[in-house]
Amino acid sequence: MSIAIRFDNISKQYRLGFVSTKTLSHDLNRWWQTSVRGKEDPYLKIGEVNNRATKGVSEYVWALRDINFEVEQGDVLGIIGKNGAGKSTLLKILSKVTSPTTGSIKAKGRIASLLEVGTGFHPEMTGRENIFMNGAIMGMTKKEISRKLDEIVDFSGVERYLDTPVKRYSSGMTVRLGFAIAAHLDPEILVVDEVLAVGDAEFQKKAIGKMQDVSKGEGRTVLFVSHNMAAVKNLCKTGILLKDGSVQFSGQISDVVDQYLSDETTKGIVNNFWDFENAPGMEKIRVKSAYVQHKGNYLTVKDEFDIVTEFWNLEEGFPVNVSMHLYDINGQCVYNVFTENKPLQKGLHKAVFHIPANLMNDGIYYVNNMFVSKSASYFNHEHAHSFEILEDRGLSDWHGKWRGVIRPTFITNEYSFIESI
Amino acid sequence: MFIVEDKTEQWDTEIKPRNGLFDVNLKEIWRYRDLLSLFVKRDIITQYKQTILGPAWFVIQPILTTIMFMVVFGGIAGIKTGTVPQALFYLAGITMWNYFADCLNKTSNTFTTNAAIFGKVYFPRLIVPLSVVGSNLVRFGIQMALFVVVYLFYDIFMNAHVAPNRYICLFPLLLLMLAGLALGFGILISSMTTKYRDLTILFGFIVQLWMYATPIIYPLSRMSEEKQWIMTLNPLTSIIETFKYGVLGEGIFNWWSLAYSFGFMLVLLCIGIVVFNKVQKSFMDTV
After folding, report:
1. What ipTM score was computed for the predicted complex, to two decimals?
2. Partner-chain contact B119 A141, CB within 8 Å
3. Would you tell me which CATH number, out of the four given (3.40.30.10, 1.20.1440.230, 3.40.50.300, 3.30.70.260), belongs to the domain A3-9+66-263?
4. Among A343, A367, A370, B160, which has the highest number of CB atoms less than 10 A from its own CB?
């Protein structure tokens, strides 16, 4: 297989803060150092890794640093990473909106991006006029557009409104028309950024189908940027993981997604442990720990897991049970389950709740452990710990959020034919 | 990752940090010529949608300006316009000046007004100012038609002293020079104002005053020899004077000053394109 696109040491530096009078002095200094004295650019040496969470010292940051990778022709490459990892900067460089500070990108054939569908639509012009306008902005000639007009109109499904100004379109129609034009550009390399976030299920299906056609049938290369792991896993063969402007990991898409999720969910799962001295509790009860226990690096809807709390009982024969309340992110109690109420001996105890696989929906949850004695709350341990359950949908055409508080698979169904009409 | 450099591989697209100073891709602009014509069409179609008078505004503006000039400069200040009727004299100047000023004003904020679209998709940025120069031609054409009507009216009914001569044939060249100068200044200003916004205010002011430094409301011949020489340093002077001379028979025509203006335009256009080209690569980071 030949290489369709190659990134060679791509770096991008940005200057933080306002463009104040300092800019002029920096500019003059830079000009003096580079042009007159023939030295290296003094501002290229400084600059630090772009970690937004920590306060930096330098005014200059590297949004991207030494990005090297290649994509084979016909491959669908997923580019993932959390916000601020450098995905958008990479795409901007790729679509020539901004230029890299160092390095180069070499590609075979035309690169087209679906960064923002419908760019350059003029509200006063009709759908037909805008198809030509938008197509030309993306680099098509009038002839090419005329040849594809029927296909584009058909794909977008706005035929009836073709001679209506775009300002009368619904937002969904505008997006559909924009995507239809972009999808018929026939570039050798297609860059797709989060288009799945818009449109209804039917349109998503169409859009993804088109992307698959483009890569499989026509042997074109697709670079796909998304936060939607289900979609990425579904569509891509290989992937790269960006972190703080560098490629942290690259390889098969499932490995890359695994790496990303286990990185991300260490923050999503908050397990708590305390010393005896600092332990939350009351006179008779002290909580030692509250956590989830599971296999692997992260938790998905298909995993079983245990919700555990350990506590010290400080009074011999104190009758107490643990009443575990599981809340979702909206503060809705998903369920409340409890242990047997019996007198406990003095010492360390442990309550484990076994949550089966395929019961929970994806989302963030937190746990309140209420210690109940003789039908009255003795100590309510609020926000004992929290955890995130991730999506794992397998192959599907729908990539939106799965609805429902829970997502059980033990509800079986029958689906049969009754009679013909 | 280790990359073996393979010299035999053919790459069609290459994205690099910054091109050389004179690396202007004219071939690319030619490839996007359809976009240029579509932009021109868009500007014309959308400019007067949802207005009452529509393109009539093109005509109203120069008429009112001419009347104003006749009252203020011709009447109160008493500036003589030679043998030519005041209305014709002013209208000739205003029509030419309007084209220059409109093109200049609109091209000089190319980057700031198009930041949204420039930030999302790439096409040769020079297409935008070029399309402005093109779409303003329509407006210019209508105003020129108005001038011709007024001209014929004075010639036939008023028996006014107008003496067109063969230099009228220079008109297409004059128009080209106006467009070139406006484009050159416009893209230069737009390149400079992306970084230092306060230059916008300065340039807006300069363009306003510029009209008075150009023989629009007074004939150049009213000045002394030395002052005329200083006035011709303004590249617009010879263009306006040649136009008035060819069409009305009133003005000073000189091949040398016209050649100076032409050379000025070429140099300005080259500098403008080079600077514009350099700025377009980095402006998304500074705008």
Report:
1. 0.77
2. no
3. 3.40.50.300
4. A367
